């Protein structure tokens, strides 16, 4: 059972870093630091969107429209942390 919990914690760690990477890349693209016409940037951007958009879409159904400010990554990160606390049984 302990091994299963460690694997789940590892998966949650990876998901956390993927969300953080998506937020950083979105900021860099939004501010014009990265150009989406470059093949590597476009591949990373497309991969992160394909991976996270199903989760974000479900969260966005319940969030109010805040215009350009997207709160879905923050809510997903909070959900991951809450799940981690529930799994570990401690604060």
Please provide the count of β strands. 0
Overall pLDDT: 93
What is the distance, rounded to the nearest whole angstrom, between the alpha carbons of the first and last residues?
A: 20 Å
Strand content: under 5%
Give structural notes:
Helix content is 75%, strand content 0%. The chain is mainly α. The protein is built from three helices and no strands. The relative contact order is 0.14. The longest helix is centred in the first third of the chain and has 29 residues, at 2-30. The chain has helices at residues 2-30, 39-60, 72-88. Helix 1 (2-30) packs across helix 2 and helix 1 packs antiparallel against helix 3.
Topology:
Layout: H1 2-30, H2 39-60, H3 72-88
Helix pairs in contact: 1-2, 1-3, 2-3
Could you write a compact summary of the structure shown?
This protein is mostly helical and 91 residues long. Helices cover 75% and strands 0% of the residues.
List keywords for this structure.
3 helices; single chain; 91 residues; mainly alpha; globular
